[in-house]
Structures are given as C-alpha cells and as structure tokens.
Amino acid sequence: MKNQGLITEEYVNTVIKRRKRDIHKGDCGKVLLIAGSFGMAGAAVLCGWGALRSGAGLVRIAVPEELFTIIQVSVPEATCIPRTSLNMDLRQYDAIAVGPGLGEDSNNAELIKTILAGYDKTLVLDADGLNQISHSHLFEQLKKAACKVIITPHIGEAARLLQIRPSEAKKMERQELAEHLVQATNAIVVLKGEGTIVAMPNSDSYTNTTGNPGMATGGSGDVLTGIITALAGQGLEPEDAAKAGVYIHGLAGDLGTESFGEYGLVARDIASMSALAIKKIMG
C-alpha cells in the first residue's frame, strides 16, 4: 500500500457538513437498498435504519412483495418497491446498496450485472451481493463497472472473493488481505473486523479507530451498509463515504456500549446511536 493512515474524528468532521437552513429531503440523498428475502427481512430493516439515522433524505427498499408489511411497519419512513420493478431507471438514485439478506436467488446475479453496467454513481456491495460476485464469477464486470463500487466483506466473504479457504485468509496480514481484494475487484474495500481497513484502488489505506467487541452481533454489517450508502447519497465522495461510514458505525457501537455493555449491544442500538455519533462528531 502506498499511503497508510488512521481514520480520526478530525477527518470525519471535515467531510460531514452542516445543513443549510433551506434544505429539503430531496437535497439529502435518495438511496435504494436492494435487500431482504424470506427469513431475512431484518437485514433490510437494519440497513434502512442505518441509512435513515445517517441522514438520507429518501430511502427506498426493494424487497419481495411478501415482505412489504414487515418493512413498512418496521421502517415507516422508508418506501417499498417490489424487486420485480427494478427495470426502471436506476439513475434516479444518488446511491444504491445491494446485498443485506438478499438470499441466493440466481436472478440477483443478473440484477447486479445490470447495475454494474448501467449505473454511474456509488454502489455498495455487501453480504449476498458479494456472494453473487463470487458464485457467478462477475469479477470482470465488477472491474469494469460504470459506477464507483464499495465492497464491505468480513473475512469469510473476503476468502470467497479471493477463492481461498477462510483459514488461509485468517493467516494473512489484514493489510495484505485488503490489498489482494482491491487487486481482485478494483473496488474500494472495507475489510470489516478489529481495526476495519478501508483500502483504495490508488493503493492508499486507512485503519479505523472506533468500535469494540460488542459489535460482533448479527445485523451490525447491515447497519454499516446503510450508513455508507446514506453518506454517499448525500454527496460524499465514495472514498470519504467509506471512511466516514466505518468511523461513525464504530463510534455508534462505542456509544451503545456505554448504555448496554458489550454483551447487550445489538444492531438496532448501533443504528440508533449512529445519529448521536454524527451529532458528537459535528459538535
């Protein structure tokens, strides 16, 4: 890696801007979250809350129609659309996320191909979105994407992307693992874990300085995807959205742990605390 550094509060404070008095919801980012499947509706809910609590003005969640009631009751501030309607113009969205709880439907691979080829803003790929890249061998499409891509793998997803065993990935230095992922995908890589690393295609990398073991809980990554997508949708450059997103996510976990401890912290706490994290950063 060319340049290495830390992600600090001082840095995040420079990229999160105070809002103008005459702003409206359309100025705060319209984001699309393609998430959720039968048995995994919670992933879409948590991703939605992460986006809303991080300032997205309009959040639309694309789910199977049988999940509409769950989503609309759990995240009333968001709107729902059926995934079958995604042949519409995706360029209306300021950022798109694909993956949390998406499931392994083979149609998802075609959807990801379409977005990679035809969307020109910021795309965040997580969870089953990354698994589709691995299983359907979409690496060339990913490398040639028309959009800026941020991927957010944990170590198991990283191993699948690199087509190595998880045990091999665990033996590698995390910095080296992140570098290999950048080379394989040409994406901005958010390698989750202790000291989350954000690695760039230009060879720069940054290590996060917030977070704690209490964040090792189901749904935490879904919240992170929502946060990063919201920040990108509000106009942050993809590199800044990734770095600021992991810092805010970690700080939200730290604030949540003050109330619930490391054993009691759950993903919905992290989503809620992300708003307080941003407030703290902005002073």
UniProtKB/TrEMBL annotation:
Keyword ATP-binding: yes
Gene3D superfamilies: 3.40.1190.20
Record carries keyword Lipid metabolism: no
Reactions catalysed according to its record: (6S)-NADHX + ADP = AMP + phosphate + NADH + H(+); (6S)-NADPHX + ADP = AMP + phosphate + NADPH + H(+)
Binding sites annotated in the UniProt record for (6S)-NADPHX: A43, G101, H154, D222
Origin: domain of life: Bacteria
Domain YjeF C-terminal: 8-281
Family assignment from sequence similarity: Belongs to the NnrD/CARKD family.
PANTHER family, alphabetized: ATP-DEPENDENT (S)-NAD(P)H-HYDRATE DEHYDRATASE, ATP-DEPENDENT (S)-NAD(P)H-HYDRATE DEHYDRATASE FAMILY MEMBER
Name by which UniProt lists this protein: ADP-dependent (S)-NAD(P)H-hydrate dehydratase
